[in-house]
Specification:
The chain is mostly helical and 134 residues long. The chain has one domain: Four Helix Bundle (Hemerythrin (Met), subunit A) (Up-down Bundle), CATH 1.20.120. Helices cover 78% and strands 0% of the residues. The chain contains 6 helices and no strands. 15% of the residues are buried.
């Protein structure tokens, strides 16, 4: 019963969240999966959980790459270039970690995800003129 209620809440929550909030949530989820692998590095199922966490993170960043490359993307070009460069770094670090697993290699991926998520959650300050438009 509790599980069904939790799923219903999660479904409603996702349908009312902004795109930025959803992006922040999935980045945070990916960071937590990676952190869990890092914290339980000697667990017997580490390889399976690490592969799942890295694949989840890479899928998120692949989606970001595709969105950033769309012609109608409203972000400033300089920001798009920076985020695309960051995604290339994440791809390289992911492949390196798959080939040569080490818990310290996850730290940068975790930190990047948390920092980007925090930026997505922050809201720009509105001016009185902005409020008049709403």
């Amino acid at each position: 019963m509790y599980q069904a209620a939790l799923k219903a809440y999660d479904s409603v929550n996702k349908s009312t969240m902004s795109g930025r909030d959803v992006e922040a949530q999935v980045l945070t989820k990916a960071a937590l999966k990676l952190k869990d692998c890092q914290d339980h590095w000697t667990a017997k199922d580490r390889d399976t959980r690490l592969k799942a966490a890295l694949n989840y993170n890479q899928r998120i960043w692949t989606i970001f790459q595709a969105e950033l490359e769309k012609p109608g993307n409203p972000l400033p070009d300089a920001l798009k270039v920076d985020l695309l460069r960051l995604s290339v770094f994440i791809d390289r670090r992911t492949m390196e970690t798959i080939a040569y697993p080490a818990p310290e290699k996850l730290t940068i991926l975790i930190n990047i995800n948390h920092n980007i998520a925090a930026g997505l959650r922050s809201r720009p300050k509105t001016t009185p003129a902005d409020k008049a438009l709403v």
